[in-house]
Each structure stands twice: as structure tokens, then as C-alpha cells.
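Question (not urgent): is this output format expected?
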Amino acid sequence: MMALIRRVIRRFQPISIILFALIIAFLIGFVVFSEKVTNLEVPVLTESADGIIVLTGGKARLDVAIDLLKDKKGERLLISGVHPDTSRAVLLKVTNADQQLLECCIDLDRSALNTVGNATESERWIRSNQYKRVIIVTNNYHMPRSILELSRLMNDVQFIPYPVINTDLRSSSWISQGDALRVLLTEYVKYIGSLTHITAIWSKLSPADISQNSK
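Got this back:
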């Protein structure tokens, strides 16, 4: 009986080691991801970009993006992921934009339902305007995945992360804050999913396909 148990343990030992290694790698990656996200800072924009894109998800994001447009940090603004039932009149009420700014320089994307959709619609907007340098406005925890998805489609475009920080966690530990920990863990899992999916896609592409994708 003991011999049988020892054989079973020896058989499953490699699997246990692999699982343990994966768990450790996941935890280390999560800590690195969380530290990077919580330490993101708003960049000093010494020169204007071609355009600005804000990924919807809160009024703070819209206000930051519209302020950048008012400060002429970009020629036009794309608000990606607007609910189909949200009118321009409603946007005027909930943001600090004015009618003239909304009509002249703000475009609305009502098709995107998630970050992948944001990237797809953003590519259409960027290509149609022939932009090469674009400011991306979204929450700090959402920024790595957003830049990852955008860069997958447009590695010839320079994206400037402009994080919106609702809760400053640099002076306190995010590990001890339940809500922050939950948001970071959820976003990290999504980031790993996007990274895995993109890696699988690129591994199947030929050099010619990769070259074409950058044009």
C-alpha cells in the first residue's frame, strides 16, 4: 500500500511543481502589475498630440479628456464606448464641454462594448484622420490593457498614456484596501487574458503579415 502511495506521489510531483511555479509567477506578476499601475503619474505634455481618445467609464475620464482638448493638446477628441441612447445634449449636461466644442472637435463612438471594441473603433478613427501621436485617457488600472490592445492594431502609432487617478494609492498599501485589491486583481486577470490572446495571434502571423499590420 505504501509503495502504491509513493508511486502516486512521484507521478504527480512534476504536476505539483508546475502548478506551484505557475501560482508563484502569477502572484509576482500581480504585484509588479499593481505597483506599476498605482505609481502611474499624469505626464507633462510639452507638445501637443494629433488627437485624444477617452475610453468611457466615468465622468472623471470625460472631464480630463475635454480639458485636454480645451488646452489644445490634440486636434480632435474621440469618446469611445458611448451608450447608444446617450445624446449629445446629455453629454453637454454631464461634462464641462460646450456646444461649440462638441460640434467642432468631438467625435462619438457608440459601437464599442469593451476594451477590444474600443481599440477597433479607435483604429478606424485614427486611420481616417491619419494621426500618428494620440493621447489615451482612461483610469490608471485600465491603462496597461488599453495600450496593449491599441498597440496590437497600431504599432506604428505613438500612444501617450494619460491616467485618471480616482484614488491615490502611492502613499498607502493597496494590499490592505479591499476595493482596490479587487479592482487590481480583476484587471490583472483581464490583462493576462489579453496578453495571452494577442501572443497567440502574433505567433500565427508571418513576417509579411506583421509588416502589413504596422502600416
